[in-house]
């Protein structure tokens, strides 16, 4: 069980089920057995429409490959989730700018992803994950494509966000990253091998 406000690492060897678990938590894949409660509600057998609504309202995603749209500026990338929520353009831009400032990239708002470093792109991705005020951030290898100094900066940012009360689940294969989390859940062959509560 992952409690509200926790910063949890999920670890395991390749093929252990880390990405599958993250996809289930992110309501991208359904699950065959067991139960999944998100915000006290059972997620079993959701329609795609209901899953999309929960994703939009409760979840933010951060990926190893950033998943930014190459022809959109940092500001436009961050504002995208608000566009899908139907937030008016002026408010979208103001909120996106506020979150770019939060991650230290206000001066880079008009830059495209290929004009920024990997660390900057990941901070844009984190701002995008935060802009819709999710309860939970799911981060899949968020430091996997970054050098160690930049990895520490990104983890520092995730820890700051976590201290504001947002639950964060980080899938990682890096011990140094996992050690910075409150708790580590280790997977083996699709099952929880151990969790250091």
Looking at the overall shape, the CATH architecture is 3-Layer(aba) Sandwich
**What coarse outline follows from CA principal-axis ratios?**
globular
Proportion of residues in extended strands: 15-25%
The count of DSSP E runs of length 2 or more, i.e. the number of strands, is: 8
SSE pattern, N- to C-terminal: EHEEHEHHHEHEHEE
Count of discrete domains:
1
Number of helices: 7
Helix content: 25-40%
Please name the fourth-level CATH homologous superfamily: P-loop containing nucleotide triphosphate hydrolases
Structural class: alpha/beta
Low-confidence stretches: none
**Major sheet details:** 6 strands, mixed
How would you concisely characterize the structure shown here?
By secondary structure, the protein is α/β, with parallel strands linked by helices. Helix content is 39%, strand content 18%.
Your description of this structure?
The chain is an alpha/beta fold and 197 residues long. The protein has one domain (7-196): 3-Layer(aba) Sandwich (Rossmann fold), CATH 3.40.50. It has 7 helices and 8 strands. Strands 4-5-6-1-7-8 form a 6-stranded mixed sheet. Strands 2-3 form a two-stranded antiparallel sheet. Helix 3 (74-84) packs parallel to helix 5. The protein is globular and about 45 Å long. It starts with 6 loop residues before the first strand and ends with a strand.
Secondary-structure topology with pairs:
Layout: E1 7-11, H1 18-25, E2 37-38, E3 41-42, H2 48-58, E4 59-63, H3 74-84, H4 89-102, H5 118-130, E5 136-140, H6 148-163, E6 167-171, H7 175-178, E7 183-188, E8 191-195
Parallel strand pairs: 1-6, 1-7, 4-5, 5-6
Antiparallel strand pairs: 2-3, 7-8
Helix pairs in contact: 3-4, 3-5, 4-5, 5-6
């Amino acid at each position: 069980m992952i409690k509200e406000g926790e910063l949890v690492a999920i670890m395991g060897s390749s093929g252990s089920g880390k990405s599958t678990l993250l996809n289930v938590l992110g309501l991208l894949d359904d699950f065959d057995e067991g139960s999944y409660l998100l915000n006290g509600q059972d997620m079993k057998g959701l329609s795609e429409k209901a899953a999309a609504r929960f994703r939009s309202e409760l979840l933010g995603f951060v990926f190893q490959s950033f998943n930014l749209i190459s022809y959109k500026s940092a500001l436009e990338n961050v504002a995208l989730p608000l566009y899908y929520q139907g937030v008016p353009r002026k408010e979208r831009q103001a909120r996106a700018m506020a979150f770019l400032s939060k991650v230290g990239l206000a001066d880079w708002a008009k830059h495209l992803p290929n004009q920024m470093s990997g660390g900057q792109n990941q901070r844009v991705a984190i701002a995008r994950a935060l802009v819709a005020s999710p309860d939970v951030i799911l981060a899949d290898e968020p430091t996997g494509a970054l050098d160690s100094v930049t990895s520490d900066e990104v983890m520092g940012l995730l820890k700051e966000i976590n201290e504001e009360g947002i639950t964060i689940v980080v899938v990682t294969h890096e011990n140094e990253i996992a050690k910075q989390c409150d708790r580590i859940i280790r997977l083996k062959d699709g099952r929880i091998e151990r969790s250091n509560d």
